[in-house]
Amino acid sequence: MKQIIVFILMLFPLIAFTQITVDTSFEGANARVLSVDNTNNVLKVESVLKRGDTRNIVFYFRISGIDSTRTFKIRVQFSQSYYPPVNAVYSYDRITWYRILGTISGNYKEYSGKFNRRTIYFSHGYPYVYSDLIALQNRLAANPFVNVSNVSYSESGRAVKLFRITNPSVSDSGKSLVWVLGRNHVMESNSNYVVEGLIDYLVSSDAGAETLRNQAIVYLVPMMDVDMVFVGGSGKDQLPVDFNRDWDSPSYWNAVRDVKTRMLQTAASNRMRIFIDSHNPFPGETDTTGRLFFYSMQSSGVKFQNLNKFRTMLFNAGGYYWGRKLLYPTSGQSSSKWADSVFTNIDFSASLETGWIQRTDNALWSLPLYKLNGKVLGKGISEYINQSTSINGNEMPVRFSVDVFPNPFNGIVKFRISLEKISVVKIKIYDVLGNNLAAVDFGKISAGSHDFTFDASSFSSGIYFYEINAGNNYPLNKGKLVLVK
Ligand SMILES: [Zn+2]
Q1: Rounded distance from Cα 249 to ligand 1 centre (Å)
Q2: From the CA of 22, how far away is ligand 1's center (Å)?
Q3: What letter does residue 302 receive in the DSSP assignment?
Q4: Which residues sit with Cβ closer than 5 angstroms to ligand 1, an ion?
Q5: Tens of pLDDT along 63-91?
Q6: 125 neighbors 177 (Cβ within 8 angstroms)
Q7: Strand 146-153 relative to strand 159-165, pairing
Q8: Partner residues linked to 263 by β-bridges
């Protein structure tokens, strides 16, 4: 009997359907059918304006009834002159996505191809919907370094998620502050994968991520405009105000207002070092040299130099070039401009524009590469914070480095401390629960390199942390010790 049922089920798809249908009854979908030509296999749809939208250039829909033996054409009509991306993506299962290149002809974009299934999902970019954010939160629920809270509630009552990543075993006192936002512009869906890739890196066991968690608290709001993501709108230049033009007070949107408040609160106890807002430039917004770049307010000065130093670190971490551009003066009231003006001692503030078509080394951006871009970003942030050599405000350019060896160790560990000038040096050792196990005050130490040994042979095997304080000129130097007996 079972065999008969299987046989019938297998026969079923062999029956030819010619009727094309379009479904938009799912989260984040957007399209309206204009015409279906079953004879010539052409589907024509248009992008729909959602809440306050002014740009009908995004789309996301499911097509059923495709004849896999014939070429199928999808035409998406748009009425905006704003340049839409020429490549779209499709999927059979919404897990694996494939790129498809389009052509622009008049007021529509045309995509043509043969598809292996009767049903496909079709989107202007790699879709990242609100449920994906909740899935990310759930996936990381047991991770000891992540705490997720609701920083705000949208106009429709959806929670705006704030991810806080740090090592809770290391005191927050003296840690650097890093803030990262995403999806101020909803149509730039690929930028959400950059943030997710960054989060995955930050919670990973990579040595750089571990160092960063000991030295910094990283706050991330992956999705700012949750309502527009949910309804599948564009968001860019929406009315009454674009999310990324809403940062000067008073803010219109709940999420912008509440995230600003939280940023200010966190900066009261930890120094704001880095602010990054993740975007995608559409092809019309970029050029052949700037497919991946940072917008910033600075064209000279310390913040300019800090961002350049960071870009060099990113190049070293990823092997491809991270460009930079001056933020349009007319696009003021943006998140990065606001952060730049409020946190005057910040190392740098920038909008990250991860390109749409090609990376600066000509590799085609894909979903895995967007995530990788987030990882490279995380490595760069770790290296930048770890070097702690930024010259900012009235601080002197200082150099203070610590080498710990061997590590892992089995009794005696050596700290080599290099100082640029005479300083008072103290070392603290504590366990994973934050209990203070040893504190040594070396008093005034001359400039240069000094070795100190620490005898931990009475400790049991496990993970410990050290914290070296070399006076107010230097940030605390913290790290992990692994004792193996
Ligand atoms: Zn944007």
Answers
A1: 20
A2: 29
A3: H
A4: 185, 279
A5: 999 998 999 999 999 876 665 567 899 99
A6: no
A7: antiparallel
A8: none
Domains for the chain: give ranges and CATH numbers.
Answer: 13-123 (2.60.40.3120), 130-387 (3.40.630.10), 400-483 (2.60.40.10)
How much distance in Å is there from the Cα of 421 to the middle of ligand 1? 44
Rounded CA-CA distance 28/227 in Å is 10
Question: What are the residues whose beta carbons fall under 8 Å from the beta carbon of 387, sequence distance 6 or more?
Answer: none
Ranges 43-52, 215-224, 355-364: which has the least confidence: 355-364
Please tell me the distance between residue 191's alpha carbon and the centre of ligand 1 in angstroms: 9
Least confident range of 173-187, 188-202, 229-243, 466-480: 466-480
pLDDT on residue 13: 47
Q: Ligand 1 centre and the CA of 186: distance in Å?
A: 8
How remote is the CA of residue 356 from the centroid of ligand 1, in Å? Answer: 12
CA of 98 to the centre of ligand 1 (A): 23
Q: Is 212 helix (H, G, I), strand (E, B) or coil?
A: helix
| Tokens matching residue 292 | 């991946």
Lowest mean pLDDT among 86-100, 107-121, 386-400, 405-419: 386-400
Ligand 1 centroid distance, CA of 239 (Å)? 15
The pair of structure tokens assigned to 4 is 């008969």
List pLDDT tens digits, range 314-365.
999 999 999 888 887 656 689 999 999 999 899 999 999 998 888 888 888 9
* Contact call for residues 349 and 334 (beta carbons, < 8 A): no
Residue 284 has what pLDDT? 55
Q: Which two tokens stand for residue 71?
A: 């070429």
Ligand 1 centroid, distance to 337 Cα (angstroms): 13
| 316 CA from centroid of ligand 1 (Å) | 26
Rounded to the nearest angstrom, the distance between the alpha carbon of 279 and the centre of ligand 1 is 4
